[in-house]
């Protein structure tokens, strides 16, 4: 039997997050914890989730804040850049490969949550590190994940690099010309957009919702740091909107029933996966913000009735026994396993949907459950930095 319970179980999710965080703090050297293979990213996921549901982790564990900073310190690795030694984050305390831009981004996001504000520590060192990842070959630009990578076209590294720059230079973004070749970077993103409107991992790759999110977020950050409000004219956002909306499919858990729900897939012909509720909906929100003054196709916006069904679709993936969310719909006969990534992306998507522009009063669940009694604790997330919006005094 699939999950027919349409209530966001806040207390159960709190218990799940506390369990995962307790493991991360006390058993970080174990290979059997839920965060062992994604350590610094997993810490960010669970801290961000806790932040969004207003669960103060520091109240749950003795000296928790210092313990998290201690774990971050263990992830630091020393690099020599421009004849100066600097420390940057690697994936986990036992990863002795060179620091990566993906790990550095998670480290900055963790510090933002723990400090309750954006801090600009080591911004000059970070700018130098970013420059060391950028490779120009003719008219082509490559941004690598780490210094020991080969030249790579990967939109994840473009997004992560831009966001690291944005957060670490938050109060003064005027240094971008000395760090990036913005014109080449913009041209690369333009060339990466496929005929269907979406973006793949690299040039001419199949459109994929996760990589599309990275691309549209990158465009939004470039728009902000360059103050170029017409950058959207270089892209076909109407076509992109249509491609994103085609990612909404009927949930396999409630096909042909009165309680039918919708969910998202990441590519054409693929099954529903709750993680795409974030990648797709966040992309739609960012595109809408970028093109706010343009004549967009009115059919490209999701109305409140659809939002209600999408919320139901996400809640189908809630694990009603252990808490958290799982990749496929919860089934009481064949119980799946929650994991930190799908929990993070599901709660982030619910935060974004709940705090959408549609009037809350028009979103109702089946009686007697009232959604906004249980969603009220969800605070608003910024879809680009993927942090609570309370940390940003400006939004991209």
Automatic annotation (TrEMBL):
UniProt remark on cofactor binding: Binds 1 zinc ion per subunit.
Q: Does the keyword Metal-binding apply?
A: yes
Q: What is its EC number?
A: 2.5.1.60
**Recorded superkingdom:** Eukaryota
GO cellular component, as recorded: Rab-protein geranylgeranyltransferase complex
Reaction(s) this enzyme catalyzes, per UniProt: geranylgeranyl diphosphate + L-cysteinyl-[protein] = S-geranylgeranyl-L-cysteinyl-[protein] + diphosphate
Gene Ontology molecular functions: metal ion binding; Rab geranylgeranyltransferase activity
Q: Which SUPFAM superfamilies does the entry mention?
A: Terpenoid cyclases/Protein prenyltransferases
The UniProt keywords, alphabetically, are:
Metal-binding, Prenyltransferase, Repeat, Transferase, Zinc
Query: Which residue ranges does the record assign to the Prenyltransferase alpha-alpha toroid domain?
Result: 12-357
Query: Which cofactor(s) are needed, names only?
Result: Zn(2+)
- Protein role: Catalyzes the transfer of a geranylgeranyl moiety from geranylgeranyl diphosphate to both cysteines of proteins with the C-terminal sequence -XXCC, -XCXC and -CCXX.
Family (UniProt): Belongs to the protein prenyltransferase subunit beta family.
Tell me what this protein is called: Geranylgeranyl transferase type-2 subunit beta
Q: Which organism is it from?
A: Cryptosporidium meleagridis
């Amino acid at each position: 039997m699939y999950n027919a319970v349409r209530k966001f179980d806040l207390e159960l999710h709190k218990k799940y997050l506390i369990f995962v965080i307790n493991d991360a703090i006390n058993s970080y050297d174990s290979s059997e914890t839920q965060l062992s293979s994604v350590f610094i990213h997993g810490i960010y996921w669970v801290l961000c989730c806790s932040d969004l549901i207003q669960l103060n982790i520091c109240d749950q564990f003795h000296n928790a804040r210092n313990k998290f900073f201690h774990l971050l310190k263990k992830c630091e690795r020393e690099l020599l850049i421009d004849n100066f030694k600097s420390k940057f984050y690697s994936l986990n305390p036992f990863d002795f490969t060179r620091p990566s831009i993906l790990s550095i981004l998670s480290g900055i996001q963790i510090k933002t949550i723990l400090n309750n504000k954006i801090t600009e520590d080591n911004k000059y060192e970070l700018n130098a590190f970013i420059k060391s990842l950028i490779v120009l070959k003719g008219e082509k630009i490559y941004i690598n994940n780490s210094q020991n990578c080969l030249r790579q076209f990967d939109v994840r590294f473009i997004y992560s690099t831009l966001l690291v720059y944005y957060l670490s230079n938050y109060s003064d973004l005027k240094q971008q010309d000395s760090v990036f070749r913005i014109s080449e970077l913009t041209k690369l993103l333009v060339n990466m957009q496929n005929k269907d409107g979406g973006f793949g991992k690299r040039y001419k790759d199949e459109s994929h919702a996760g990589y599309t999110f990275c691309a549209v977020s990158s465009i939004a950050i470039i728009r902000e740091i360059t103050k170029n409000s017409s950058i959207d004219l270089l892209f076909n956002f109407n076509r992109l909107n249509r491609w994103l909306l085609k990612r909404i499919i009927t949930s396999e858990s409630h096909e042909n029933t009165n309680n039918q729900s919708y969910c998202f897939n990441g590519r054409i012909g693929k099954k529903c996966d709750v993680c795409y509720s974030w990648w797709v909906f966040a992309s739609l929100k960012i595109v809408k913000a970028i093109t706010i003054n343009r004549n967009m196709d009115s059919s490209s916006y999701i109305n409140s009735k659809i939002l209600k069904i999408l919320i139901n679709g996400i809640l189908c993936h809630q694990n009603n026994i252990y808490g958290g969310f799982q990749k496929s719909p919860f089934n009481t006969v064949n119980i799946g396993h929650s994991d930190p990534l799908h929990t993070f992306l599901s709660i982030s998507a619910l935060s974004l949907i709940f705090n959408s522009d549609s009037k809350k009063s028009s979103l109702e669940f089946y009686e007697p459950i009232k959604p906004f009694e249980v969603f009220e604790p969800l605070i608003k997330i910024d879809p680009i930095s993927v942090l609570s919006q309370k940390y940003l005094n400006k939004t991209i």
